[in-house]
Design a protein that fits this description.
357 residues, mainly beta, Immunoglobulin-like, 2 domains, six-stranded mixed β-sheet, globular
């Protein structure tokens, strides 16, 4: 893993990652379901070209009844359509100091799409998992070199999590076919976890009898304070709230310009641990906080809308918002509290500079 840097200048390689992997436009928070073209993208290697007419998904390993499923087989099974907030585990990384070197996400690596597919649990039950199985590995067709290791992108889930009712194999997005960049023809959706768990371009599912030790499991996506030591694995999404930047932007700096008076500030909040219980708004960089009004999410795994009537007074302001979920988890007000070596799960406060005219 590349060493964090105290430089605020991005390398040529980081700029290349930022161009290849786009974030959601924050004004997209106005939509309960993020339009496909606005939804964030993180593509580790290349987008593989897969012929759906010959596609088959093997389900094997420690199972008594191995399966080979075509896309048509999967589409004949009971279908569900579920809105799910998906967030990159590196979201917020660019706000940390020293800055971890990787895709320089600020707060835009998120989206809430409606995924259509079939639940995974009945498929694993049909495959008849062996008593020795403890984890399920999901391999993608995307292949590359990372950390000096040539590899498919592979991740695993503990058996209990793989059998969760919400986990699904998705072949549709927002009412249409799954786009190539989002995992066509088939991807995994793990609703409450960060996006790295929702493996795209599924190549294989296999049950194993020991913890998976693939590169993306044991080297990447771990919360640790230094390069040494195993750290703890990234799993569920931390509570996070974002606002639609109010007013109109300066083209280059993106500083907002707002007219004085009552201004509606609105946004969305989510957590993979428990439902959102409160959202607070601050007009003065976190010195004072006031409760925002909460709306109802469109689904169990969707983000929750919130709004606040701000009495905007002339001058310069820095707006902030923070979320707390029903488990008591809340967003840290200090970026130092969110710092970790890889910049994962950094649910730092969104800060929006505003000039009120």
């Amino acid at each position: 893993m590349t060493e964090p840097t105290k430089s605020q200048e991005y390398s040529r390689e980081e700029v290349g990652l930022a161009l290849r992997n786009h974030g959601m436009h924050l004004e997209g928070l106005r939509y309960p379901v993020t339009p496909v073209g606005m939804h964030y993208l993180l593509i580790h290697y290349d987008i593989p070209f897969i012929d759906a007419t010959t596609y088959e998904l093997p389900v094997g390993g420690l199972v008594r009844n191995p399966l080979r499923l075509t896309l048509d087989d999967l589409k004949t099974r009971p279908a569900v359509t579920v809105p799910v907030v998906m967030e990159c585990s590196g979201n917020g990384r660019a706000h940390l100091y020293p800055r971890p070197v990787s895709a320089p996400w600020r707060e835009e690596a998120v989206g809430c799409a409606e995924w259509t597919g079939t639940p995974l649990r009945p498929i694993l039950q049909e495959a008849r998992l062996s008593d020795e199985a403890v984890e399920v590995v999901f391999a993608g067709y995307d292949r590359g070199v990372e950390g000096g290791v040539e590899q498919d992108f592979e991740r695993s889930l503990p058996l209990e999590d793989a059998l969760d009712d919400g986990v699904m194999l998705a072949y549709g997005m927002n009412g249409g076919p799954l786009p190539p960049q989002h995992g066509f023809p088939l991807r995994l959706i793990v609703p409450e976890w960060y996006g790295m768990a929702s493996v795209k371009w599924l190549k294989e599912i296999r049950a194993i009898g020991e913890p998976f030790e693939g590169f993306q499991q044991t080297d990447r996506y771990r919360h640790k304070q230094s390069e040494e030591g195993p750290g703890s694995p990234m799993t569920r999404k931390n509570p996070h709230a974002l606002m639609v930047p109010p007013g109109i932007p300066d083209y280059l700096s993106r500083v907002r310009h707002v007219r004085a008076g009552r201004t509606l500030v609105e946004g969305r909040a989510w957590s993979g641990w428990a439902p959102i219980e409160s959202v607070e708004f601050s007009p003065d960089d976190g010195r004072t906080w006031d409760a925002a009004a909460l709306g109802e999410p469109i689904g169990h795994y969707a983000w929750r809308p919130w709004s606040y009537e701000w009495d905007a007074e002339p001058g310069e302001h820095e707006l902030c918002v923070r979320a707390t979920d029903a488990s008591g988890r809340t967003q840290p007000t200090d970026n130092d509290e969110a710092w970790n070596y890889g910049g994962y799960g950094a649910n730092v406060l969104q800060r929006v500079p505003v000039i009120v005219d």
